[in-house]
Automatic annotation (TrEMBL):
Keywords from the UniProt entry: Ligase
Family: Belongs to the PPC synthetase family.
Enzyme nomenclature, EC number: 6.3.2.51
Listed Polar residues bias regions: 17-28
Pfam families per UniProt: DFP (PF04127)
Protein name: Phosphopantothenate--cysteine ligase cab2
Limits of the DNA/pantothenate metabolism flavoprotein C-terminal domain: 73-174, 188-321
Positions of the UniProt region annotated as Disordered: 1-30
Organism: Dimargaris verticillata
Single GO MF annotation: ligase activity
Record carries keyword Protein transport: no
Biological process according to GO: coenzyme A biosynthetic process
Superkingdom assignment: Eukaryota
Amino acid sequence: MDRKAEVFNAGRDSPDSIASNPGAQSVLESRPYEQIDPDTYFTMNSAPTQLPAVEAQLAEFVTYHQRQETPRIVLVTSGGTIVPLENQTVRFIDNFSAGTRGAASAEYFLQAGYAVIFMHRERSLQPFNRHFAQDKAGLLDYLCADDADQVSGTVQIQTKNLLLLITFMTVADYLFVLRSVTNYLTPFGSRAMYYLAAAVSDFFIPAQKMTEHKIQSAHGGLTLTMDQVPKFLRPLVHEWAPQSYIVSFKLETDERLLIPKAKHALMRYGHQVVIGNLLLTRKRTVTFITRQDQFTLSLTNDECQQTMSPPEIEAKIVDELVRQHTVFVVGSRA
Ligand code: PAZ
């Protein structure tokens, strides 16, 4: 990957907390070499072929929940996008995300009474299925488990039509589907939550710049030049879902960057919550950044050592968000 592709997206308005952190400062001072706006992105790229089918499913699910007067609905995005390197794709760039956070969180939102649209990377982890994904047992095994609550919970989700599964593969699929979901959720206003846990690529190669056929190795090494994926949080917050409750995640590997960059994202886009997590500790600890507050949620040592049904950090995250979302909904009515 050449240097251009390594340039981070830069913040234009660095907050004080970043100014006091030289590491974060230098990252945030890098300027994007090319940044197309989201509208241009949608005109330059074709919508995925499955979009009309996805929209039909969304229409049916949302109409059902409007009729049922379901109090809350959440879009959970989960798993990593791929970035194709050829139009007839043989190779692509992927990332580490297995979709654990999204799948676990979807279960906790269902338990909290939310209808859930689970927008996930094809073949990544899914709610409930994730419990047997590793040992290749069947959903039947899960349903036949001793835990009666788990079973009745799953059956309720099926009979009450509370979970809609939709998929993406590439970053383009992700952006087109996300924009469509916002259209369908508009009637829910503040009662809709967006929980954006997917790991979405920051860089891509536009179709027009991609080679049609498989990249050949005859000429030696490979240098890639990638464009920056537009920052879709801005239109999401300001145009597509301005009344809804929006939670984004920020992943870093350098601890010194995490909080400054999470704060920066919140200031830049003006949504409700950024949840910061580090690659190595993400299953154990996260930091909430809101306009008023900053606090950490963690699993205790005792909780981590439990061998039978160890608690998951997602239970704590969702608990906290449900509480904050309630305050938001009430405040929006005032
Ligand atoms: O999918 P997973 O459970 O392995 O990882 C979850 C996560 C780290 C992708 C998520 O918590 C997250 O931080 N998503 C946003 C990543 C980003 O900064 O784009």
